[in-house]
Amino acid sequence: MTSPTFFRKSIAFLLDILVLYTFILPGFNGILRKLMPVSGISDAISLYGNMGSDQALVTTITALILLMSLYILMYFSLSEYLLGASLGMLILKMGVIDSSKNNPRLFSCIVRNLYSIPLFPFMILWIVDPLFLLLRKGDQRLTEFLTKTKVIYIG
After folding, report:
1. pLDDT tens track for 39-92
2. Cα–Cα distance measured from residue 2 to residue 18, given in angstroms and rounded to the nearest whole number
């Protein structure tokens, strides 16, 4: 089984981001706009400067970001666990398998998608995961290597 190229995997990821942005995250955007009405860059800078004085706002925004991160992680993990691929992967005829050539376990799907949480320390994976793939000259990201999973062509 051959592994898709880094470029093809990147296009699938961009398609998944489009799905998330279109169907899952709009509700969060509406809430954030109500909490932080910003009409221009000067408003944004002013709001950012004053956020420290409004602890309730900071707490609410932090909670929303954590909830949004959980939705994103669930999208990738559950689609790979239940469908064997994310929607972006399915569109490009790719799927995820484990070392036994089966659909991966839920825990493996969660670990391989921890990069989708936009919080430290998971953000480190934004750099380490693709670097591992490119520098190792293999076909797996670091999280795929650790979970013994890989992306393959399907169909």
Report:
1. 655 555 565 666 666 677 778 777 888 888 898 999 999 999 999 999 999 999
2. 26
Contact 87, 24 (CB under 8 A): no
What is the value of pTM for the model shown?
Answer: 0.80
For Cα atoms 31, 36, 42, give the angle at the middle one, nearest 5 degrees: 145
Give the tokens for residue 111.
Answer: 């670990």
Contact 57, 47 (CB under 8 A): no
Q: Please, what is the angle between helix 6-19 and helix 55-83, to 10°?
A: 120
Distance, in Å, from the CA atom of 151 to the CA atom of 12, rounded to the nearest integer, reads 11
pLDDT over 70, % of the chain: 86
Q: Which two tokens stand for residue 127?
A: 């750099």
Q: What is the distance between the alpha carbons of residues 130 and 141, in angstroms, rounded to a whole number?
A: 6
Distance CA 66, CA 102 (A): 31
Instruction: Please report, to the nearest 10 degrees, the dihedral formed by the alpha carbons of residues 8, 11, 12, 17 taken in order.
Output: 160
Neighbours of 29 (CB within 10 A): 11
Q: Within a 10 A sphere around the Cβ of 74, how many other Cβ atoms?
A: 16
